[in-house]
Amino acid sequence: MEKVYDVVIIGAGPAGLAAGIYAARSKMKTLIVEKEKPGGQIVITDEVANYPGSIKDATGPSLIARMVEQTEEFGAERVLDEVVDLELNNSIKILKGKKENYKAKSVIIATGCKPRPIGCPGEKEFIGKGVSYCATCDADFFQDFEVYVVGGGDSAVEEALYLSKFARKVTIIHRREELRAAKSIQEKAFKNEKIHFIWNSIVKEIKGEGIVESMLLHNRKTGEDTEIFADEEDGTFGIFVFIGSDPITDLFEGVLDMDNGYIKTDECMRTNISGVFAAGDCRLKPLKQVVTAAADGAIAAVQAEKYIEEVLSE
User: What are the residue ranges spanned by the domains of the chain?
Assistant: First the structure.
């Protein structure tokens, strides 16, 4: 007999894992499908200081590791696979993966977001050769080098602070005249002697032969272009990009109601298709944080259980 899960969760970030914890704890037959590794964007974060109740010096990886443990303790199954097609309109949903197909009475979409690129010439060519979107992954490569952080929000400033532990100089490039990060984070950055700022500027082009050797900055206020070159002894520098994120929802275009790529839900995480829920950063919401992602996942799991009991049992 072919296996039918009570709920299949697509994505193993905080939203997906929280959904898995709540669903499995409620004795639902639960499967979490993740195409790479658990964690989502939080796994590349060095410090998680604002998650309520987290232990001191908690990191993204440590928080995710504990969430994964909890899903296993409650009996949720996990599989590494990428969902490439789906049939959601019937009472039994079918998710078609690259490895195999999965059937479920309900589906929770928790695909999250991906880092937003600058979109300038040279960026793609130098990914992994000076351009990075993950400070915790690549900071060690720039021990005693100069690095530049593009962005001005919480993530950009937090990662700049982290990079200052490795690089001899960190310069934040921001398109505006002031940072958008929380005041408490800004204060830490302004007090850090290694951190410097270039205001009202954007990266226009990244250049080099095999590795990043220079970048062209455009000042939005004066209209001037300035080229920054690597120190002669270093030969290169790092460019770390933290200018936001884009939802990973291409699979659901034309299937679910969406707004600018984000899945629309009600407060119970219900989408426009019965038995299909969305949670975390992939859905339209005012605040994208670990705490809200986990809350979304918990709500989605509880609502999925109610859907199975109330709708499918009729």
Answer: 4-115+245-312, 124-241
